[in-house]
Amino acid sequence: SDIGSQKERVVTEEEWLQKWEMGNIGFHKEQGHPLLQKYLDVLLNGRSALRIFFPLCGKAVEMKWLADMGHSVVGVEVSEQAVKEFFSEHSLPYCEEPVPEISGAKMFQSTSGNISLYCCNIYDLSSSIVGKFDGVWDRGALVAVNPCDRQRYASLMINLVEKNSSYLLVTVSYDPNKHKGPPFYVPESEIQSLFG
Ligand code: SAH
Questions:
Q1: What 3-state class would DSSP assign to 32?
Q2: Which end of the chain is more exposed for a tag (fewer CB within 10 A), N or C?
Q3: How far is CA 24 from CA 62, 65, 158, 184, in A?
Q4: What keywords are assigned to this protein (predicted)?
Q5: What's the confidence (pLDDT) of residue 124?
């Protein structure tokens, strides 16, 4: 119940890049997440051609899955390697361009135009750059955010969604004093206070 020693811990951008370089990416799943399949109806809510956001997207295969269903997918990921692996592993041609509003950031877009992945720090995004979204798939995202940045992350996410949007959030229930991760334990009470 107590997040104890995790509270002060930080995973730096450098450490994430290193995980990708070393292939230390146990969080990546080749199979689509069963909870997205299970709650797809909640995410879509009878709507089609949605704009769906993948915060801290890695190379999540669900992006391809939703794009193939006719939705438009936008992701953000700090590792360029992850972004490039996503496109190459799905044999998707893409183009690459700078993001004028964010210094050093690049946007990788599938040639078909329905998948756009921003390679930058998520905190550099805003709705004036990426627009607003009808749906969010947050798996391995809030739980990967450093505890000290949670409030900032939640405020950004609230800013990036349309009024009638659906936000699917996956967290993992465990005793944080017994297990080191997935990176951070987010208790239900905290989700309530972050998102209301
Ligand atoms: N959601 C993905 C990946 C989860 S792991 C999945 O389901 O597989 C978290 C990812 O977030 C890592 O790939 C890491 O490189 C990236 N990341 C961590 N902090 C970030 C930040 N501040 N901005 C953008 N990406 C970040």
A1: coil
A2: C
A3: 20, 24, 31, 17
A4: Cytoplasm, Methyltransferase, S-adenosyl-L-methionine, Transferase
A5: 98
Does residue 150 have its Cβ closer than 6 Å to ligand 1? no
58 C-beta closer than 6 A to ligand 1:
yes
Q: Is residue 27 part of a domain?
A: yes
CATH number where 149 lies: 3.40.50.150
Q: How many CA atoms lie within 13 A of 161 on its CB side?
A: 23
In this prediction the pTM is 0.97
Q: Which of 36, 65, 77, 168 to mutate for ligand 1's pocket (most ligand atoms within 8 Å of CB)?
A: 77
Quote the number of domains for the chain.
Answer: 1
Q: How far apart (Å, rounded) are the C-alpha atoms in residues 92 and 106? A: 17
Instruction: Name the token pair of 86.
Output: 């996503």
> Does 169 reside within a domain?
yes
Q: Relative to the CA of 62, which ligand 1 atom is closest?
A: 7
44: domain range? 13-195
Q: How confident is the model at residue 182 (pLDDT cuts 50, 70, 90)?
A: confident
